[in-house]
Design a protein that fits this description.
Elements (H helix, E strand, L loop, with lengths): L6 E4 L6 H12 L2 E4 H9 L3 H24 L5 E4 L8 H10 L1 E6 L2 H8 L14 H19 L2 E4 L5 H13 L4
Parallel strand pairs: 1-3, 1-4, 2-3, 4-5
Helix pairs in contact: 1-7, 2-3, 5-6
């Protein structure tokens, strides 16, 4: 593998970070962890509840602690929350401690993949989801790209194909 033994997946909601991450972990024999799920395990409540009680700032504080902790672990595949890159310390931890893959998804794909989800606090009770997703994309895309070792477009592509591309990149030209 590369000089860094953990793989961190970043990208917007609906990009497939959890799906690709699970498959990548299985393929490479690495433990898969989803940072949002880890926050829920540690707090005993779901993400929407944290947003409701503590707001986004409270959630981001919890997320920062989890990202700091998990990025110290070796040999994992970590799927991060879409907004984790907003914090400069998170970006530093991710880029310095592992191989960062940005799973890029168009706003259309994000809309399609989040349409039936009620576990997305930033989209809850929002009339114009497209507008919100476009604003989030405009703000976050440069941050994802800033720390990415590899950028993959996920539109119209299967998790299997994406995992193969990541694996090929990690193995390098020597194969």
């Amino acid at each position: 593998m590369s000089k860094k033994s953990s793989i961190f997946l970043v990208g917007p909601m609906g990009a497939g970070k959890t799906t690709v991450g699970k498959r990548l972990g299985e393929t490479l024999g690495l433990e898969f962890i989803d940072s949002d799920h880890e926050i829920e395990l540690r707090t005993g409540v779901d993400i929407p509840y944290i947003f409701e009680k503590e707001g986004e700032p409270g959630f981001r504080r919890r997320e920062k602690a989890v990202i700091s902790d998990l990025t110290l672990r070796q040999g994992i595949v970590l799927a991060t929350g879409g907004g984790s890159v907003l914090d400069p310390d998170n970006r530093h931890s991710l880029s310095a401690r592992g191989f960062v893959v940005y799973l890029h998804a168009s706003v259309d794909q994000q809309l399609a993949r989040t349409a039936r989800s009620d576990n997305r606090p930033l989209l809850k009770n929002i009339a114009n989801r497209r507008e919100v997703l476009q604003e989030l994309f405009a703000q976050r895309d440069p941050l994802y790209r800033e720390i990415a070792d590899l950028v993959l477009d996920t539109d119209e592509r299967s998790a299997k194909t994406l995992v193969k591309e990541i694996q090929d990149r990690l193995m390098g030209p020597e194969g």
